[in-house]
């Protein structure tokens, strides 16, 4: 199965929520104007709604590119042509884009965890140059997907690989966000790509955490450096650095504990790990990945704020996008922080992590096909 199919299937809750919301918004208002259009639902017969207002089937005559400076330049021509040029779309109910419809759209996007500011801006962009036009739910989905893709494209960046050996990747995040699982998945992918990887089980507070990482290491075929429970994680990190250097490893991934007594402890521990590995390589860590759990919704925003104060976060991984209705939070994150999103997780298996693709994500999120 392609990752897109997997993403779309597993994003069902988010996408059915947003997709159904858009369908509802359009059909809501379309009813009021039915006499002019599809009130009888003549099977397959195209109704003839107010000719001047029907924007889409005649793209040649529409000065859309200038009316629409904010729309995504890369995504529009192909998809508009494909979708709006297609005959079946004509049978869809249409609704005139007015203030009431925009308010409903805004409200729906906020409820889908996109955040107030982002929802307002996305809605304004969709409205620009289109007020008074009659649009269908499919068109609305395409427009929304275009807007989302435009926000997400600049942040869709795979984990950068540097010639530096070992490249040190510090993985941080709150308890249960998916750090250990993500390290296992990433290690497996880098190994498969021919990289030599070493993992350091820096969460030395729980024996179970070390065992969990060892299982992932076995699955991925990657060595896991461990230390007895309660050992100072910084000293384990130092040893792991020594080993990774000695073995000529390409990547050293350091897991950390998500749960400590308080923020101060966590900050001190992360700072100590960084201090110690810098004794070996002043440029390390080369990446600090913050792992976020999509099911926490808006809370992910405050986690980014907190962790940026604790560590020099260089990129994000969003896990658990499967089965949550809160995938919209990724749009808010991208819009607010602009931090690279390196990967997304859509399940607990080793291959349930992939590079983040803005267009795929946007289309899956609004419930559109590839
Ligand atoms: N459905 C789903 N579950 C995931 C995903 N990523 C991780 N999980 C699950 O989330 C739970 C917590 O994941 P961990 O990797 O242990 O999280 P952690 O951040 O290391 O947690 P601590 O070590 O307690 O701080 C586990 O049951 C994982 O299987 C994902 O993308 N989708
Ligand atoms: Mg863990």
From TrEMBL:
Domain AAA+ ATPase span(s) in chain numbering: 165-370
Gene Ontology biological-process annotations: SRP-dependent cotranslational protein targeting to membrane
Catalytic reaction(s) noted: GTP + H2O = GDP + phosphate + H(+)
Region (Disordered): 1-81
Binding sites annotated in the UniProt record for GTP: 173-180, 255-259, 319-322
tRNA-binding found in the keyword field: no
GO molecular function: GTP binding; GTPase activity; signal recognition particle binding
Membrane topology reported for the UniProt record: Peripheral membrane protein
Domain Signal recognition particle SRP54 helical bundle: 79-152
UniProt superkingdom: Bacteria
Primary localization class, coarse: membrane
Keywords: Cell membrane, Cytoplasm, GTP-binding, Hydrolase, Membrane, Nucleotide-binding, Receptor
NCBIfam families assigned to the protein according to its UniProt record, in alphabetical order: ftsY (TIGR00064)
Protein name listed in UniProt: Signal recognition particle receptor FtsY
């Amino acid at each position: 199965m392609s990752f897109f199919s997997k993403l779309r299937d597993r994003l069902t809750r988010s996408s059915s929520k947003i997709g159904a919301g858009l369908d509802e918004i359009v059909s809501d208002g379309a009813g009021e104007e039915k006499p002019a259009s599809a009130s009888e639902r003549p099977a397959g017969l195209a109704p003839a709604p107010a000719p001047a207002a029907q924007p889409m089937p005649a793209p040649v005559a529409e000065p859309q590119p200038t009316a629409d400076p904010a729309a995504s330049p890369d995504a529009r021509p192909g998809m508009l042509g494909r979708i709006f040029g297609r005959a079946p779309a004509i049978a869809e109910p249409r609704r005139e884009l007015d203030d009431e419809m925009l308010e409903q759209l805004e409200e729906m996007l906020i409820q889908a965890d996109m955040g107030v500011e982002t929802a307002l801006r996305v809605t304004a962009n969709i409205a620009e140059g289109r007020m008074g036009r009659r649009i269908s739910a499919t068109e609305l989905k395409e427009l929304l997907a275009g807007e989302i893709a435009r926000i997400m494209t600049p942040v869709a960046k795979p984990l950068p690989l540097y010639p530096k050996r070992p490249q040190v990747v510090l993985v941080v995040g709150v308890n249960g966000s998916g750090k250990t699982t993500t390290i296992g998945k990433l290690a497996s992918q880098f190994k498969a790509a021919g990289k030599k990887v070493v993992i350091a089980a820096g969460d030395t507070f729980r024996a179970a955490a070390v065992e969990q990482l060892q299982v992932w290491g076995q699955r991925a075929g990657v060595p896991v450096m461990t230390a007895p429970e309660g050992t100072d994680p910084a000293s384990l990190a130092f040893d792991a650095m020594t080993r990774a250097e000695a073995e000529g490893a390409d990547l050293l991934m350091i897991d950390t504990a998500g749960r400590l007594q308080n923020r101060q402890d966590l900050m001190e521990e992360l700072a100590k790990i960084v201090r110690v590995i810098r004794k070996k390589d002043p440029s390390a860590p080369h990446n600090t990945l913050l792992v976020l759990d999509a099911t926490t919704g808006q809370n992910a925003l405050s986690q980014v704020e907190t962790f940026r104060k604790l560590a020099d976060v260089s990129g994000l991984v969003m896990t658990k996008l499967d089965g949550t209705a809160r995938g919209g939070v990724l749009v808010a994150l991208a819009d607010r922080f602009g931090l690279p999103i390196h990967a997304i997780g859509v399940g607990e298996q080793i291959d349930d992590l992939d590079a983040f693709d803005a267009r795929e994500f946007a289309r899956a999120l609004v419930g559109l096909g590839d």
